[in-house]
Amino acid sequence: MAAGFVVLLRETLEATLVVAVVMAYLRRAGEQRQMLLVLWAVAAGVAGSIGGALIFQRVAGGFDGTGEQIFEGAVMAAAALLLTTMIIWVTRRSSLEHSIERSMSRAGRGGLFVLVFLSILREGVETVLFLGAAAANAQGSIIAGALGGMAVALTVGAFLMLGSRRMRLRRFFTVTNVLLILFAAGLVAQSFHEFQEAGVLPGSTGPLWNFNPPPLADGSLPPLHEDGLVGSFAKSMFGYDGDPSLLEVAAYAVYLVAALGTWLTVSSRRRRADAGTAPA
């Protein structure tokens, strides 16, 4: 549930911010007549995302046994890769207003439509992949968390569209970047688990440690058990495994160090670039 909340919060907010910035730019440029085109682009992007979700569901429902394990492992690995590249791209990208200016000057109405459509479609496709991967580790209703995240993001977007600029979005994205990198690390480890179970990757699947003992005398589970109070949340959010293999732990650690290191480096370069272009 928590993973669904964070994923939809981040993805919906990014899509909403695109629309908010485009609308604000059009108002300042005296191009209010283009706003209807933006709404059509949003509708087309949402429709494309729904189509992608239906296709994904149809494909995902057609596997069982080893094929299902390989498919789930591939989806998790793809989601982690896409999530990482998205975080790095968002950190590095230039001002969205510059993209709007280029789209308007190069291709007019068509360029603006394509910019908004692809922005919404990209967020939708990412959401489908992330939720599909998160569902494999879900403890509880991932849909409820996703709807909650979407509602919060739309509320924030509404404030932005109404002109409120007081929210510290940079700090928000910093926090969610860290959470999503941890989430992606769990996806990487879980994908290695699925590939090992399917026999695609070598190595023993025996646990490096085991925090999944039998239930206690009263029927309850220890907190760190995958289905325990702490473990169930960590499994849903970060791909926690109470009895991981050595390869899973190694994959988690290598990815986490590489992703955090890359993101921190890119963030530092972006801050220096922003400071260099700031007015004196």
Strand percentage, roughly? under 5%
The average pLDDT score comes to 75
Q: What ranges have pLDDT less than 50 throughout 5 or more consecutive residues?
A: none
Order of helices and strands: HHHHHHHH
In total, the number of strands is: 0
Integer count of domains: 1
Termini distance? 46 Å
Helical segment tally?
8
What labels describe this entry?
mainly alpha; 280 residues; single chain
If you had to describe this structure to a student in words, what would you say it looks like?
It is a single chain. This protein has 280 residues and is an all-alpha fold. It has one domain. It has 8 helices and no strands. It is elongated, with a radius of gyration of 21 Å.
Short description:
This protein has 280 residues and is mainly alpha-helical. Helix content is 75%, strand content 0%.
Spell out the blueprint of helices and strands.
Layout: H1 2-28, H2 35-60, H3 66-92, H4 96-135, H5 142-161, H6 169-197, H7 229-238, H8 246-277
